[in-house]
Amino acid sequence: MTKTFLSYVLAAIFAAAPAAAVAEWQAVEEVRPYSISGKTGAELYESIGARGPEVGAGRVIAHTTFKLTWTRKYEAQGAACMITTNRPKLIITYTLPKPSTALPPAVQASWESFIAGVQAHERVHGETIKEMVKEIETMSIGLTVADDPDCKKIRIELTRRLGEISAKQRQRGRDFDKIEMGDGGNIQQLILKLVNGV
């Protein structure tokens, strides 16, 4: 971004927006199961490896995705432009494994412990997504750009800020996964207990 452009950008109004301007919203959270088979922990884990969601170059046990859309209103304020309405619609989808048939009682107990741990892990990703959306909402409501009566420069500035917030959220997810999936991490422990029937 050029210094010339920056000279036209006013700082966002970070002070609390009027209560009516920030509408209450709730994320919609969905679970999308995928079918796996097996009668032992090892067989179930092998089935996860064959049928789990594809992410990057391989398959994973579970995955969290989201769809985010906004209802925004840009209003000219003299020669400036301000975002006066900014309502998110957030749908978070958790893709999780689910055995296709009933399990033997001992395996069922191991499975319930395993899937509870996996769900808890994915819910952390869901929370970071919700926190990201709240940060975007706080940053953008009342955002004002000077010398922008056609509300074009404000869209460029908003996109820049959204990119920074989104990149921060993705890095948080990577850092969390690195800890959870590393040697001795929570996910590794869950896998070992499932496979060993603990």
UniProtKB/TrEMBL annotation:
Keywords: Signal. This is DUF922 domain-containing protein. It comes from Rhizobium redzepovicii. Residues 1-21 form the signal peptide. The lineage of its organism: Bacteria, Pseudomonadati, Pseudomonadota, Alphaproteobacteria, Hyphomicrobiales. InterPro entries: DUF922.
